Prior knowledge:
63% helix, mainly alpha
Amino acid sequence: MYDRDAFIRCRLHVLAGPASGFGDYEPEDDDVNSALSAYYQGLEAALEQRFEAVLDARRAADSGTRTLLMLFGSTARSYLSIRTPWSGYLEAGLLVRRVEQIGPGGERILEASRRIEESVALSRDAHLEILDAIAAHVLGARSEAVFTSADLLAAGFDDTRRPFPPN
């Protein structure tokens, strides 16, 4: 099922691009990432057709919508850039153990890291709230619409062809 939230998340994938590691993009798997990028671009086009609206300021029909979508774009880019000191680690177990070994300083590091994680979670939620509010306004009467795979197929997009990384 594809609702407003799915449209927003699709737009985030398109904006992030395959090298970002965002969402479904795989670290260090260029083939899968290129295929996913094409998939999300196709999905976005199908959702735009179904919602009869775009979430990209460069393609907005009128200046009022374009202005709001400029904020949507900057909010999306801000959302995609949110990080913590731990963000780049696929497996931080060894690092956590080492930090724990340094005693009181390690406790401070882990406590501060926990606070950062909490702040980042709040920031992500606030960013998504802004994105949703803008999308709801831009989509207007269709903001509560929900589309099926069959609806997307009618728009020329087959969502069953989503690429997955090899096991």
